[in-house]
Design brief:
With 76 residues, this protein is mainly alpha-helical. It has 4 helices and no strands. Helix 2 packs across helix 3 (38-45).
């Protein structure tokens, strides 16, 4: 996806990956819990491509990770 916010999308995906690993979940287990495919999650977490998500998926991810939605957008 070409977007002027490419780096923000990538940072978002990496934060999802960080919290998923912190919770000890595999991509497969997390994707199932969120209701998305493993391959879709792999695209979201990719450090080399920008890949967006719907609001529904965003809220489901935050719920599965047990973090506020805002935490997935915080700058380090």
């Amino acid at each position: 996806m070409q977007t002027k916010y490419e780096q923000e999308y990538i940072r978002f995906g990496l934060r999802v990956q960080y919290y998923r690993k912190l919770r000890g979940m595999t991509q497969e287990a997390f994707a199932e819990r969120v209701g998305i495919s493993w391959s879709y999650l792999a695209k979201i977490e990719s450090p080399t491509r920008a890949f967006g998500v719907s609001m529904e998926t965003l809220f489901a991810m935050a719920e599965a990770l047990e973090v506020p939605v805002a935490r997935l957008f915080e700058q380090p």
